[in-house]
Amino acid sequence: MLGVTCGASPLPFNVLPLMIGPIHADLGWSFALISAGVTVLGVIGALMAPLFGAAADHIGVRRVALWSLAAFGIGFGAFYFLPANPAGYIACWAALGLIAIGSSPVTWSRAISMWFDRRRGLALAIMLMGTSLSALIVPQIAQRAIEAGGWRAGFPALAVLPLLVALPVALLWFREPRPEERPPGVTDASGALWGLTLGQAVRSYRFWVLITSILLIAFAYGGAHIHMVQIVAMHGVTPKVAAGVMGLVAIGILSGRLIVGFLFDRLWAPGVAFPALLLPAFACLLLMGTGTSLTWLMLAGYLLGVAAGTEADVIAFLAAKYFGMAHFGRIYGMLYMPFGVGSAISPILYGAVRDATGRYDAMLMAAMLLFATGGALLLTLGRYPRSAEQGVS
């Protein structure tokens, strides 16, 4: 959980919403250009995810995750020296993407799925609570750092989290289970890990249903999160109150994740995910226009958080359930690609709509449809396989 909190998946996405305005005021760049930083990070990280996942399968999660966590902390702190030109700005985010994805749920999820079977949904939810903690903590630290030393000061202030919090704890206590510690549902009758190869998974219709669903939902949510402060500010609230709405997003991620994870262990997961992903479609409706009351804006932030919590749980849980653990890292890495790419491109789309129209309404309307369609696709996945042979079919 601490590794996820302080890793490359939530931390940059929770600090940039507070920096978009100050960077725009300082350097005069467009909202789309500023958003492109996390786009480049996300796309390159997504492309690297299968490689980091394969490395976790081959040499273990501990080595991959801890080295990547350290590299991410050092690299992110060095962003204090970001050059004041667009090419250098983008290049720095690209470099971070090459080294940081190993500190994301791509690696940590494999370890959790190896330790748990019957309560895997809840265990993954607790691990992924790290994104909620990040959403609660990071904006507060970033806001104080920006007030004290400008937007550049936010980067080293937050680099403390991976380097001095998560890394020491993981070095002391984090490991994968030994073969005799693995729960029965993770292994076959011989005690070996069961599961499809990446090639077998790719030939399954379920793989492509998941790819499509994940991509649609990521397109809908990623930009809404990055631009949330700006979207809320258009309804006449102060930047400080808008930052508070980000806290409601975090609470939505937290509560939605725990509820969804609990239900995943007891009910058919796609049937749980579909109604949960309809809630953020309603949130987009609330965020459109101007003059919406603060109460409704807070509800919208909460419901969008539920979407983020649901999607992250869906990827890890369904990858383990439908494809097994033998090659989980490779398969999860491939499924993480549309999540990373969609979440990364989405902020540019939101920013471009804002630059072109002065509002976000057109993109929010599209997001409503994307949430509903992405959730409905999950209903086609069918029952869980109970063995490698069933998984192949």
TrEMBL record:
GO function term, MF aspect, one: transmembrane transporter activity
Keywords on record: Membrane, Transmembrane, Transmembrane helix
Span of domain Major facilitator superfamily (MFS) profile: 1-385
Keyword Membrane belongs to the record: yes
Entry's transmembrane regions: 27-52, 64-82, 88-109, 121-142, 154-174, 207-229, 241-260, 267-288, 294-319, 331-350, 362-381
InterPro entries assigned: MFS, MFS_dom, MFS_trans_sf, Proton-linked_MCT
Name assigned to this protein: MFS transporter
